[in-house]
Amino acid sequence: MTGDTALEAEGLGLRYGRRARRWALRDCSFALPAGRICALVGPNGAGKSSILTLAAGLLRPTEGRVTAPGRERIAYVAQDKPLHPRLTVADTLRMGRELNPGRWDEPAARRVIADELDPRGLVRDLSGGQRTRVALALALGKRPELLLLDEPMADLDPLARHRLMGLLMADAAERGTTVLMSSHILTELEGACDHLLLLAGGRIRLDGAVDDLLAAHALLTGPVADLAPHTVIDSRTTGRQLTALVRREGAVEGPWDVSSPSLEDLLLAHLRHPEGAAA
Ligand SMILES: Nc1ncnc2c1ncn2[C@@H]1O[C@H](COP(=O)(O)OP(=O)(O)OP(=O)(O)O)[C@@H](O)[C@H]1O
Fold this sequence. Notes:
The chain is of the alpha/beta class.
């Protein structure tokens, strides 16, 4: 790690419209290290799209700031993948090349399109998943230093999702691209993301390297007993049997079987109890 920060937020807050009573985001501060693939997770309405839109510079914060220090090339793929419906796939890529003179990476864009799409096909005739492919091709062709993706895989079939995720990860690793990616598909984040931001109610509840966060938690099964001094994030009892995910305070000693949670275990526990997750 270089210590370089690719995206930084300080006291970031957003209210849509002056009269809006609710804050979509409040007091969000984080520093995303360069070269990380960061998952942005949270329930519907948590503020994920708002953070990505602010980071892309398409909205102004109501308070605080979010900056991408030293990064000029930022690509943003919005949830609704806005593309020009009357252009063909080939025209869309040509437009990408013309809008990014001297830095357009045609092979990277073509790798995303692969043999899956007819370059002569009109964008308006494409399915949702096919449009996603074109939007991702445009984003990667731009050779971004920071890539902001809002639920990029949501409308892809499982195979396309698997392939495109692999391609995205390989491309990011090769170029050292920093990626911030919102997703509800927890199983896909495992192994793909090395950093995590969990949002709930417009606030950051968990922020850190995935390995550190996993090491800070433990999954316990065994008899019902006092779990202090550990912080219980989620627990269930069946008869006298307890299953709990805790944030460790030192070594866990007691009558339980102790294992490391998967990223999905960790996220589900925190999503079930977003208030308890506050770090
Ligand atoms: N254009 C808008 N005008 C007013 N309120 C908005 C607007 N966009 C979002 N909001 C509100 O801001 C809050 C955060 O929304 P946001 O879209 O950022 O959540 P999200 O985490 O991306 O949700 P999802 O998982 O459903 O995509 C919600 O309460 C939402 O109602």
